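Feature request, filed as a ticket because there's no other form

It would be nice if the structure record came with a short human-readable summary line next to the tokens. Right now we just get the raw output. Example of a typical job, pasted below so the devs can see what we mean:
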Amino acid sequence: MHTLHRSLVCALIAAGSVASANSPKDPALTRAKTSAALAGIAATGKDCRDLALVGDPQEVKHLDNPSLQQTLAHVQFTLFAASADKSYDGTVLATIVGKDPNGDLRGNHHIVAREGTIRTERDVISITPTADKCIVNAKAKIFYKDGTGAFEGYSGTGVAEATLNFCGGAGHAVVYGRLCK
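Raw output as currently delivered:
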């Protein structure tokens, strides 16, 4: 099953990269918006980069455990550094892995690009229902655990806001993070 998951994500990355070649840049992917969103998050290392990520997640069923809630999205993201900015196309797989006694959810995210991966672990996600029973608003505190490839050695914290549709339609998510070595 692991190979099937990996093949599915790799195929989505390739499809997403082709699809996004003609997509306009989302206004959330600016240095100014990223800096404002991360104003309360301290840099905790020497080589720090600010991350801005946008995507339109859709619910997907887990292959081995149908009770796990997951979303999958093609994403565009930019890493802002003092010397240069670099933009990427990729895919994010988000999985709800637990629930706190206060009702907040815990989630893990896998951000996958051709250049490498970034993982988060036990992010704190607060859900607010809307008038539409299919749609919820989510706010999250993100805990970037590690990365591979171009993102190897980076970790940090961040924030996210999303509108999620659990009746089949796409939502929209904006994620920011301060990643340092």
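Something like this underneath would help us a lot:
The longest helix spans residues 2-20.
The chain has a mean pLDDT of 88.
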